[in-house]
Amino acid sequence: MARINKVTKARKSETERQCYKCEVEIKEGETYYWIQNRVGNSSARKNFCENHPPRPSDITTSDKLAALYAARESVEDAMARTDRDTKRIPFDNYKSGVASALDEAGSEARSVGEQYRESFDNLPENFQSSSDLEEKADSCDSWADTLDDAAAEIEGIEPEAPEKKNEDGSEDLSAYDEVDATAQEALDALEL
How many CA atoms, within 13 angstroms, populate the side-chain half-sphere of residue 37? Predict the structure, then answer.
């Protein structure tokens, strides 16, 4: 993985700096991040504005790992869509959104597992014994099963009493916490 570099005040530049994610120009004096991935004999530099810092899927040069990291990030994004203090979305919408993201991440993990298996099958037999591609394929399949199980478990979560309040008068958010804990546990199961 590439190292993330943070620039707190952009200097004047002859070439325009553009955010890799949102394509907004990064102006002089603004904070931004940059990474430089080595690809073959050359390297590719990517700039990111302060609002869109690089994520693991942006940093890796492996297309398979990038797909797995992006799947994980999509679930994290679904979990972050609720702002409990101001703009909380209804529990049923939140629950189904996180479960759907977990299902999609599971499908992506299976797809990556198939790609690892294809790569393994395409190796000459004398190299297959020293390759870890089959283990990676099994890890992807195992993670996909974990994500699918978590999605099914989340679909079964119901709040104890939708209008229940805590002792201090605030709304009881334990059902949201249960969804988050289940999803996070499934995300943490990725081992590569």
Answer: 15
Angle at 176 between CA 175 and CA 177, to 5 degrees: 90
* Residue 57 falls inside a structural domain: no
**Residue 8 exposure: Cα atoms within 13 Å on the Cβ side:** 0
Structure-block tokens of residue 130: 């020293």
Query: Are both 82 and 146 inside the same structural domain?
Result: yes
Q: How many domains does the chain have?
A: 2
Q: Model-level pTM greater than 0.70?
A: yes
Taking every pair of Cα atoms in the chain, the longest distance, rounded to a whole number of angstroms, is 68
pLDDT tens-digit readout, 123-163: 888 787 777 888 999 999 999 999 999 999 999 988 876 55
**What domain range is 35 assigned to?**
5-49
Same domain? 90 vs 179? yes
